[in-house]
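#lab-general

N.A. 3:47 PM
ok so I finally got the sequence cleaned up, no stray characters, all 731 residues accounted for. can someone with queue access submit it? mine expired

B.Y. 3:52 PM
send it over

N.A. 3:53 PM
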Amino acid sequence: MKQEVSSKETWENAVQKTRSKVTVHQWVNFDKESDTGIKVSVIVPVCNVEQYLDECMESLIHQTMKEIEFICVNDGSKDYSLEKLMKYAKKDSRVRIIDKDNAGYGHAMNIGIDNARGGYIGIVESDDFVDLHMFEDLYKIAVKEKVDFIKADFNRFAKENGKFQCQYIDIAARAKDCYNKVIDPMKDKRVFSLVMQTWSGIYRKQFLVENCIRHHESAGASYQDNGFWFQTMMYAKRVYFYNKPYYYNRRDNPNSSVYSKNKVYCMNKEYEFIRNIMNQKPELEKDYIYPYSRKKFLNYMFTYNRVAPEYKMEYLSRFHKELVEANEKHEIDWSLFLKKEREELECVLNNPIAFLAKDVLKKESDKIHKKYEDEIRELKEKNEDLKYLLNMCENQRRSQSDYNFEMWHSTSYKLGRALTWMSRKNKDKQLYDEQYEQTLKKNNICHIVFITDEGYCMPTTVALTSLKINKRPETVYKIHILASEISDDSREKINSLAADNFILDIIDVKQDEQFKNYVKGDGDRHVTPAAILKFKIPSILNKVGKVLYLDGDILVQGDLLELYNTDITGKYAAVVKDILPERNPKHMKFLKYPHRYYFNSGMMLMNLTRMRKDNVSDQMVDYRIHGINHFMDQDALNVVLGRKLVYVSPRYNFLNKFYEWWDVKQLSVFYGEILPDTEREAFDYARILHLGSHEKPWKYDMGYLSKLYDSYYNQSPYKDIPLVREALVEQ
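B.Y. 4:20 PM
back already:
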């Protein structure tokens, strides 16, 4: 009895914590009592799924079980999801709605379960749907067998070209004798190897309450079902797996977290959540540490394969470190792993260089045209760098000693260069053309913004010239130039570049009086106060949804349509990470910088719709006035926009000083892609070459950079005005 009181108090504390986290705006139909009593409460977390919601709700309200309620938790949807839910609640009082501010999937699930009145809890994702007999059939078995939960098989589906594609999933495929009988997970831990999902069954609510089983309330909608699933398996005494499919799981929703390449460490946080629960009860850790370690490994592998290329090396570093710690503590039972899983485990644990080699080589082999296969084979046989690295891997595997993981960081760039040599040599023009054709089908119009004053008109015009020369004929550039007090002559020179598919729009703007005399913190004036006009772009271009902002001190060396069509849904911008925090951490500490990465604002693909919605312009102005600033505009942009960004390849904002500030090894590891060996090759690799240092190639003789700049200057409207340069004095 004492244990029950303790569990109840723990549950009630957790319920109160969840309830106080955000504002609930409406409780719809919670004041209406059921005439028949409620056997099953179905929780439906909803966030921006209007296109799928009808299919889901129709499958629920027509369930053969009548003693049922549907608790739809609207987690701050910005589309018409709430309106659709209200329509169903109006015609069916069993549909109950909790309309609240966004706090993520875990919070939505918890507050739904907390307010459920049924003896059993079901879960239906709002982009899925279910068989009309699901809850009646599962409830009958659950009551008869007195189980803590029951799970059934399910179908994965997608709709392609109007056709319904469906795949049957046996949840107990690895242990078919687990079907159709009561199992105690403590006695048969094979259940931990079964398919991980939480929505194809029902759970006894009192079982959840007694064990305080809740979802992890981390941000977003990212794998919080893992923690819930693992808890139910640890605490359950009686579980049942039924070999009949009722649930239809969608796999064609592009907004699903499964397809998010930038959510890097959310799975790690989920397994930290599970481990914290186990740490509180030593008996759980003792009984379930081996299934935990296996499941964690498989989900880390899933994450490694899912994340964007620029995060893979960084993620593998942490993955390896956690595996080493687990192995040293004897927390891994190798017998639980299948043969392929053991091979991957051994490779990541002992030879991440070899793991990276196999991974990169496979991807490069898939990418490169078939005609290059013989050359790749020859590369593997003859390339000395590659032979050296693979031999080193084999020697380490045999010795199992003195493994230095930091060494992997210092050699990974070399390995990648060796493996990607063939694709770089051949430039992969065919692949580039194919990608452009695909991009062209989506959209061929780019809105581009420059900001200039009279002092920067010449470089801006040269940048425009490079943009025009290197664009593809099918791409349409609509260029908005925010001009602060420029002369008629400068205006005429800019307008002379206008042409079909290269549309120029000069917009006269005035700098705010409060910023006119602003300078950088160190008094440097190579960035003018006009840069602060970046804050005004959302309001000046109030009818444009997305723009590509570019500084005037750039050279564009290719078409920018692919960059412009980068998906930034829900984000403020796509940007390139800056190495400033790594080179000068003291400076970031001085700024009290709150985010993980810092970006260079010379290129920003800006989501103006989202920025206007969140009123970020006023936030940036306020920070520029009251915050800690070193750069004219860049610190304010980073602080305000930094929490909602997409990071793209450094080739889209390649600073000419990169190879002076850092060596190619450090740059390649930091950006997660193999950069060219030499500075000269790197300048050619850059799609947008940013001449962002104090020294400018139109003012000083900077060798190759000045010659490159001249090649565009001599085709610009300024070609008849000779450039006068000074000799660049080394500091």
